[in-house]
Amino acid sequence: xxxxxxxxxxxxxxxxxxxxxxxxxxxxxxxxxxxxxxxxxxxxxxxxxxxxxxxxxxxxxxxxxxxxxxxxxxxxxxxxxxxxxxxxxxxxxxxxxxxxxxxxxxxxxxxxxxxxxxxxxxxxxxxxxxxxxxxxxxxxxxxxxxxxxxxxxxxxxxxxxxxxxxxxxxxxxxxxxxxxxxxxxxxxxxxxxxxxxxxxxxxxxxxxxxxxxxxxxxxxxxxxxxxxxxxxxxxxxxxxxxxxxxxxxxxxxxxxxxxxxxxxxxxxxxxxxxx
Length: 275
Prior knowledge:
This protein has 2 helices and 18 strands. The strands form 5 sheets. Strands 1-2-3-4 form a 4-stranded antiparallel beta sheet, with no helix packed on it. A 4-stranded antiparallel beta sheet has the order 5-6-7-8, with no helix packed on it. Strands 9-10-11-12 form a 4-stranded antiparallel beta sheet, with no helix packed on it. It starts with a helix and ends with a strand. The protein has helices at residues 3-13, 18-23; strands at 42-46, 49-53, 62-68, 74-81, 100-109, 112-122, 125-133, 146-148, 156-159, 165-169, 173-176, 189-190, 201-208, 211-218, 226-232, 240-241, 266-267, 273-274. By secondary structure, the protein is mainly beta. The relative contact order is 0.14. It is globular and about 50 Å long. The longest helix has 11 residues, at 3-13.
């Protein structure tokens, strides 16, 4: 698919609205789909069910998993982190309101759900965590995590066609990950620093029609917050920025919701892209 047509498709469907309106006649739904505090969402579709995880920072249990059949009606089905035994002592060993679990990525691969995140605020800095389950509807089914030492925050997990597993983090940097041991390849590979906004972070990698697409947040978490995208033929780059970036932002507008950024992309059963 040409980059322009894909980007235009993403642009037209980043906010829940038009495509489902045609499918759900005489129904009403609203943004935000999860009212309240649900920052940094990461969402996927598995068969005909949609799943999302959001940040919880220092709250415990953490990393709530929500499920929906129609993208309108959601229910809380589990927490990725619900047992003190999963990370002994971590739930109370924090230093501030901006510590804890945030900016997780939820993915599904070969019959298994993977939930990758970092815990910020420990004496030794950042702890990376990778939870797994085959039953996302049960708290107890989520595994004890494999821990790792991420270079930066906001980890994304991506499986390439050759079976290699990668973690992308703030910066934007890339490392190969051993799922069993948590070992990360060295040195980290720099992918893209965005379009000039501060704090390029929140990366997500997708592969489509032979292209790697790199979605990131940049501009900080205040009024310049935005979502930008680039693509490359090789996962290590070089990445070509989309000419009409940012693909999502409310900066410079009078929209009710401001500071919009840090997105993720997924498809519905009709092949439409959503974020």
